[in-house]
């Protein structure tokens, strides 16, 4: 999910925002013309995506790291006992999956709420759809990295807010290797369409960003964001 003025950029913050919106929508939605059926559909959307953020995505990332470590152990480790491969996480209580496009539907709903004749700033603040004034100096970029389907397969999609800077300098590393320069991005997102390394059927990719202004990279690195490509 790309973020905007009120939608948070990190997964932890998104969980809080989505849970709050999910709680407040049945109260404020009908006032602004949102039908009961649409509210139910939105609850399905948000329940599923919150589950993705809280449970599925972290588990898959952990499975990927364990599989990479196991591959290295089997290839180059030592010992006299056999060690079976780690089993992937089993999800027994997953909520029903909606159709793709949760973010698009959510933004459309918020837009319709805001143009309702019964909409007020109080409703906007209660739903969390009014951006608060923020005068904090943003010392580092805040990336949000997702796996999406690109023109030639899966790609890492890196979203960020420039906060008035010219752009960001992006570096990446594959399967815990060395950091290498990836790109300078002057738009508020960048798509990493790099193919898998030779011999890999899947790989973990880490990304970090720093500010880029007047043709110079500067400042501290962002937190590292990791995705699994090729599953």
Summarize the topology.
Elements: H1 11-28, H2 36-76, H3 102-114, H4 121-127, E1 144-150, E2 153-159, E3 167-174, E4 180-185, E5 189-192, E6 203-213, E7 216-218, E8 225-229
Antiparallel strand pairs: 1-2, 2-5, 3-4, 3-6, 6-7, 6-8
Helix pairs in contact: 1-2
Please tell me about this protein's structure:
The protein has 231 residues and is α+β, with helices and mostly antiparallel strands. The chain has 2 domains: 11-127, no CATH class; 144-229, Sandwich (Immunoglobulin-like). It is 34% helix and 22% strand. The protein is built from 4 helices and 8 strands. The protein has helices at residues 11-28, 36-76, 102-114, 121-127; strands at residues 144-150, 153-159, 167-174, 180-185, 189-192, 203-213, 216-218, 225-229. The strands form 2 sheets. Strands 3, 4, 6, 7 and 8 form a 5-stranded antiparallel beta sheet that branches. Strands 1-2-5 form a 3-stranded antiparallel beta sheet, with no helix packed on it. A hairpin with a 2-residue loop joins strand 6 and strand 7. Helix 1 runs antiparallel to helix 2. The longest helix is centred in the N-terminal third of the chain and has 41 residues, at 36-76. The protein is globular. The mean pLDDT is 89.
